[in-house]
Design brief:
- The chain is α/β, with parallel strands linked by helices.
- 34% of the residues lie in helices and 22% in strands.
- The chain has 17 helices and 20 strands.
- The chain has helices at 15-19, 87-96, 154-158, 203-216, 231-236, 257-263, 269-293, 300-313, 317-333, 344-350, 363-382, 396-399, 408-423, 439-444, 455-462, 470-475, 515-525, and strands spanning 26-30, 43-48, 59-63, 69-81, 113-127, 130-134, 145-148, 167-175, 178-185, 193-196, 221-225, 240-243, 250-251, 337-338, 353-357, 389-393, 425-431, 447-450, 483-487, 497-501.
- Strands 9-8-20-19-18-10-17-16-11-15-12 form an eleven-stranded mixed β-sheet.
- Helix 6 crosses helix 7, helix 8 (300-313) packs antiparallel against helix 9 (317-333) and helix 11 (363-382) packs parallel to helix 13 (408-423).
- It binds adenosine-5'-triphosphate and magnesium ion.
- Residues 197, 199-205, 432, 481-482, 501, 503, 508, 511-512 line the site of adenosine-5'-triphosphate (ATP).
């Protein structure tokens, strides 16, 4: 028999009846024992009612002796005690063949005790007819009823939106065997997001879900794509797919002095100095033009003239002449460089998504493309020449490596992340290797979507995951593909949640190949059977 709790759940003014909680969803009684623990401000054990099977992660409500207040939390752990299942008892049963009764006949067996542990997330009050959430400050009591929290009210606990119109529909929360759509508040994107997880767990898939949601809310997406993951989705959404060095080029005048000089091989020190000084005045002119007109068209000849002018000013006309030859050769050779921006800036204004494929480039060229593009985008955004947008960068550890390593993109992207909130740019970084990534950047991203991660990588981010109990942290390495912990700063999302990423509307990239099948296919196609 399930006994009813001391507090009447029938009292119509009580919190429980307001939430629609009754004995149907009662799952146990808070307990106290030297072995399984007693209630603290952080954790509460409870004895599980006979025939109730609450799932791990279920949101729960713990009644208190105040009918207007309850604690709420989540099931993080559980254990079943059964002295008849002690290994030595089981051995004796077999050795003496005493025909012992089954060690566990049912949940109702008097020697079987099931106890679960819950993490306390907060307190919920009924005040003047509405629900108010507070941090835990009152000690939970023993002997109190524990209920499954009504799924429909979970967004209230999390301070998350209740509808698609007010949030980004990223996936589902599960509680008590039921599913609920989860919406990330719209404040989150502008405070930046990082998607973490080892290889093949669903990061790129999830970034596609994020892109779909940004598009649904009318926010343009700009992505730099190393593996071609977003190409099919861009096509599906009638966005613009571009390929660096083919139909996407960098205006030479904005890539930065160091980067430009890297393009020109074999300059002597004197030549480098002259070209560097000349480049800087071109760069300043370019920034000015972008700022005031949003456009850019500084011919290569302008740079050549400027090199000549600077060389003459230094009294080094001949040196300048030789430098000009090398600069011309470098510019003509390189398909990445151009004088103007091309149409992609207009595409950002007109199309839902612009995806730039950079997978065929070497890493230093990718860095250059992403760094220079980020610089242009940030500048145009600051001057309001383009609308707010979302910037998605997969394989971010290559562009923002940790330690003392610094690439042309590191500085620019770091700066963009630092100030982007004020410029209304949303940055989404994706990495399988947080331990090799720039720490500062990891910390600045307010929202984290953490898929299964190896313990070493998990250690790097575990401090940033909010109020996750150790038991949940320990399970992160074993999360199934497509499941992730979403955590954000408290003013965006009150508690971290485990979500199952929703299905994509847009086509995802090709699935991970089955090598055995792929080899057979190859042999067939190449007549090598
Ligand atoms: N939520 C999901 N639902 C259905 N399929 C998924 C889901 N998440 C991932 N997949 C599939 O799993 C495979 C791997 O996913 P994905 O490419 O996103 O992994 P990843 O974490 O980006 O890996 P890598 O680090 O190697 O890039 C893909 O075939 C993808 O379609
Ligand atoms: Mg990927």
């Amino acid at each position: 028999m399930v006994s009813s709790s001391p507090q009447s759940v029938l009292n119509p003014s009580s919190l429980l009846s307001h939430l629609g909680v009754d004995n149907e969803v009662r799952i146990g009684t808070t307990s106290s024992s030297p072995f399984t623990g007693s209630p603290t401000f952080d954790e509460v054990p409870f004895h599980v009612d006979v025939n109730k099977r609450p799932n791990l992660g279920t949101y729960i409500l713990i009644q208190s002796d105040d009918s207007c207040m309850a604690h709420y939390g989540r099931i993080t752990n559980g254990q079943e005690e059964n002295p008849r299942a002690e290994p030595s008892r089981l051995q004796q049963n077999q050795a003496y063949q005493v025909g012992q009764q089954e060690p566990r006949q049912s949940d109702l067996s008097p020697h079987v005790t099931r106890v679960m542990m819950t993490e306390v997330l907060g307190q919920i009050y009924l005040e003047k007819g509405s629900l108010v959430i507070k941090d835990p400050e009152v000690l939970p009591q023993t002997g109190m009823s524990v209920y499954e929290f009504p799924v429909a009210s979970i967004p209230t606990l999390l301070d998350a939106p209740k509808s698609k119109e007010d949030g980004l529909f990223l996936g589902h929360i599960e509680s008590g065997g039921k599913k609920l759509e989860f919406f990330l508040p719209l404040d989150a994107p502008a405070r930046h997001m990082i998607i973490l997880g080892k290889t093949g767990v669903g990061k790129s898939y999830a970034s596609g879900v994020f892109a779909e949601e940004m598009i649904r809310h009318g926010i343009p997406v700009v992505a730099f794509d190393v593996l071609g993951d977003l190409i099919p989705a861009t096509e599906y959404k009638q966005g613009r797919n571009l390929k660096a060095a083919h139909d996407f080029r960098l205006p030479y005048s904005v890539i930065g002095r160091r980067e430009f000089l890297n393009f020109v091989s074999n300059l002597t020190n004197d030549q480098e100095e002259i070209v560097g000084v000349a480049y800087e005045s071109i760069y300043a002119e370019a920034m000015d033009s972008l700022r005031t007109t949003g456009k850019l068209n500084i011919s290569f000849d302008r740079l050549i003239d400027e090199i000549g002018r600077v060389a003459n000013e230094f009294g080094q006309g001949a040196v300048g002449g030789r430098a000009v030859g090398k600069v011309r050769a470098a510019i003509n050779r390189n398909p990445l460089l151009a004088t103007n921006i091309g149409g992609w800036i207009e595409d950002i204004i007109k199309k839902p998504i612009v995806n730039v494929y950079v997978g065929h480039l070497g890493q230093s060229e990718r860095n250059l493309v992403v760094g220079a593009s980020a610089r242009v985008l940030q500048l145009l955004r600051k001057e309001d020449q383009i609308p707010p947008f979302s910037f998605i960068l997969d394989e971010a550890h290559f562009f923002l490596p940790g330690g003392s390593e610094s690439t042309p993109s590191t500085q620019v992207i770091r700066e963009m992340i630092r100030t982007a909130r004020h410029d209304a740019i949303s940055i989404v970084l994706i990495t399988q290797s947080p331990s090799s990534m720039d720490r500062q950047t990891l910390l600045v991203c307010n929202t984290r979507l953490v898929f299964a991660l190896d313990p070493d990588d998990l250690r790097v981010v575990s401090g940033t995951l909010g109020d996750l109990p150790d038991a949940t942290l320990k399970r992160i390495p074993k999360l199934a593909r497509g499941k992730a912990i979403l955590s954000s700063s408290q003013d965006i999302l009150r508690h971290p949640v485990l979500i199952k990423i929703r299905e994509r509307e847009t086509p995802a990239a090709a699935p991970t190949p089955n090598l055995s099948k792929a080899v057979k296919q190859w042999r067939k196609e190449n007549n090598q059977n």
